[in-house]
What does this fold into?
Amino acid sequence: MSNMTLTLPPTESVIKPKITVDGHDPRMLISMRNIWKTYQMGSESVHALHGVSFDIPRGEYIAIIGPSGSGKSTLMNLIGCLDTPSQGEYWLNAKNVSDMDDDELARIRNQEVGFVFQTFNLLARATALHNVELPLIYGGVGSAQRHDMAKKALEAVDLSERMMHKPNELSGGQRQRVAIARALVNHPSILLADEPTGALDTHTSMEIMDLFERLHSEGNTIIVVTHEHDIAARAHRVISIRDGLIEKDERIK
Amino acid sequence: MERSGDQGAKPHRYTFAPILTERFSGLSLLRLTAIWEAFRVATGSLRSNKLRTALTLMGIVVGVTAVIAVVTIIKGLDKTVAQTFSSQGSTVFTISKNPQIIKSREEFVKFNKRKDVTHDDAEAITRLCSACWRVGVAGNALETVKYGDQKAENVRIRGVDPTTMFDIDGVTIDAGRIWTDSEGASGHEICVVGTDMLKNLFENSPPDRVVGQEIRIAGRPYTIIGTLEPLGSIFGFSRDNVVYIPYSTYAKSYGARRSLVIFIQVPAAEQLEVAEDQVRTIMHNRRGHTPEDGDDEGFALETQDVFLNLYGAATSNIYIVTIGVAAVSLVVGGIVVMNIMLVSVTERTKEIGIRKAIGARQKDILTQFLIEAVTVTAIGGAIGVGTGFGLAYVISALIGFPLLISVASAVLGVGVSSIVGIVSGLWPAWRAAKLDPIEALRAE
It folds into this structure.
């Protein structure tokens, strides 16, 4: 593993970032180094991210906040390994994922990332238990063990009573807890939540945020992407994104 | 390398006891798990769209049903034909005025100009043909047979001489006896009846009770002296609906001038050709074959190959037509499956996105949709095999031939339809596998 300092030549971009480009910090769970994301819109190039760099150590509870169009969703997709940067390096759990192919990324998503979505994204026809088992199926875990792990994950989010229910038989908060169990079942490095309370009422939102807090206190690394300040305020560190750049990166707890 | 390194470094991030799994312990396990999951998803999605699934299956079902039914029916007929013709075997040939199959009006006119085949011809053959083993003559008529107020219609009356004709025909006596040579020559009203007579006239009385009874054929009284063992039926026509009478008796009723059929049997199939040549020469001499006759021999010499060839030609045509029908409906069925799979991929874009987000690789998605396509077509194939056998069963019961359920054709039916599933599922599955997870997650 190369963790020596690298000096990359400046790129042909108009805006030259002032950040020193160097190798990843092996103590960090996440190391983003001068990340650019450029989309081709017809003949025009649109830069969604203009060279973003930050580190996240293990066990952090972090919020990424920004208005729509700020590049926050792009950043979330990159952190979640759904996409690769146009430029720059992204180290996740000591692996350089910036130039992995589709199947390698799928493997990383399976093993390292637990997604929690705004609209829960559960499989409608599958029971809660089966939804939670799904990452283990793609991870190749045998059925008995899979069953056991999924049950324990559902117990951890207080849903052991509703394991055999389908999503349409569950409340919004319960669905989101199933999604959280699914995200956690594979013991991922990061729990990545995209507007996790966006589809929930205030009371349920608070319950979910309490659950995140508990999971954080149990040692999980949590990244919440949101545009709501009171949700971001529950985190210990807030990164504010605006126009594809980090505007602010502050520790609040 | 990395995995073993960081499993130690990785703390258990939530409190419930984690199970350290050796995730990549078995590739085969991984594949099996994925395939089983794909199968579950496939059956689930098929169940939730029952009407659509049924319509999708249609083409495949029709194609496979056609093939299975036709193959089963023809196999059953083949067996019947083989059994029927082997009872006389390929050791028998016939001399007659007209061939059994007349192909045109011209032929009909030509054959009608021929001389009748007579008892004298048969005697000449008996005397002169050294390779011939048994020679007999037979005349046929269809009559109504009565016993008391019981009546059987369209009974084949077969006037035969000598009694070796029973052997040539391959029939054997069950109860009673055959007439003696002197009885046969004297033109007595005696007969030997097939089992259908017992059924139709005597309410299934045992054969020995029937012997001695008097029946009326075309109004004339005949005494039953024997009954025959049953032969069964072919193509729905009973071979037991027959009454044998001596030829002399037949000639009294139907006239000696009617053209006969001469049956000639050789001891073994190898002698057939020699015997045919001898008989042909004898007949040419008797007919005084002249240039005016042109290319016409003046008689028809036939073996049962005529029937077998005709039968073979007919069934091979049926096979070709059926394979055509099956191919068309399988292609159409395949296109329907492909279309439905494309719809299914579009409908389930979100689901594909979710699966990809939590770690499904391209081949997992590809496998899932391929298995779904194959499941549909294999179920269609299995239903087709079932309905095909069912159809064959009904037809075999109606016509009356044995039903031969062939495992090979069942396997072939399901196999071919599975291949149709793979072929038509490949493109939709590939599209699903290639979906961008971010785009897919955004879908509704």
About this structure: The first strand of chain A starts at residue 28 and ends at 41.
